[in-house]
Design brief:
Length: 249
């Protein structure tokens, strides 16, 4: 599922060096950790189109924004091909984007999320897509910008678990595709830059609920290795338990 509650708690108590960005430099560091799937490029283009629009509408905000993508290739070899930067260059916003295509190690991935200004979650063109990244994003206790299909369980969970400004959720549908939401995404980026809405207590509450729910035991972790489709109801159940302290069964 991407992280243990105790690991996040320890990283808050004992911060590790962050080799990727300076969390104290005053910039807005929006971080995405995980694979960029083929069906996610439509959403990526909408996001980067919104960054381009932000440059037109608010150049000072544009200069403060840095988007970081880690592990987008889901490969460990150092020469893994970039997936985000080619699109960023095409749209003229590569100066605001950095990408580490190979997977980064576990503690580095958690450090990035704990030290980010906000966490980015990108959906798929498929309605059933349920992001396993949701669990660690909630545990990190940082604001979330999520761009997902309106029928994804991610939308329901975030709206219940982390209402604005902790989670800003932009939705699209099969009829109104992600590219039609560029203006809304741009507005969410502007709001995030101006008012991040950081609430570290969210991560602490999520960690406590995760431990109380028993997720840390080996049997629960083993079940989390199921395929994405088969584990969607399971993920929804556990994310709600962790975030809300309730069992939706």
């Amino acid at each position: 599922m991407g992280g243990e509650p105790a690991d996040f708690a320890r990283l808050r108590r004992e911060p590790r060096p962050n080799p990727y960005f300076d969390a104290a430099d005053g910039a807005t560091h929006l971080c995405y950790v995980g694979t960029l799937l083929p069906l996610g490029f439509e959403v990526l283009r909408a996001l980067l189109g919104a960054v381009r629009l932000l440059r037109q509408r608010g150049p000072e905000r544009y200069e403060r924004l840095h988007l970081h993508f880690f592990g987008t290739s889901n490969q460990t070899r150092p020469d893994a091909a970039a997936r985000v930067l080619p699109v960023a260059r095409e749209l003229g916003v590569a100066d605001r984007v950095s990408e580490i295509a190979p997977r980064i190690d576990y503690l580095d991935a958690l450090t990035v999320q704990v030290q980010a200004t906000a966490i980015l979650m990108l959906g798929s063109s498929e309605a059933h897509y349920t992001a396993s990244k949701l669990y660690p994003a909630l545990l990190a206790g940082k604001p979330i910008l999520a761009i997902h299909h309106g029928e994804s369980s991610v939308v329901e969970i975030l709206r219940r678990a982390a209402p604005p400004p902790m989670a800003r959720v932009i939705t699209y549908t099969d009829a109104e595709r992600a590219e039609s939401r560029v203006d809304a995404i741009c507005g969410a980026l502007s709001a995030l830059i101006d008012h991040p809405g950081h609430d570290p207590a969210v991560g602490g509450r999520a960690a406590a609920r995760g431990e109380a729910s028993g997720y840390g035991n080996p049997g629960e972790r083993e079940r989390a290795t199921l395929s994405v489709r088969s584990r969607a109801p399971y993920l929804r159940r556990w994310a709600l338990i962790i975030a809300l302290g309730e069992d939706p069964r």
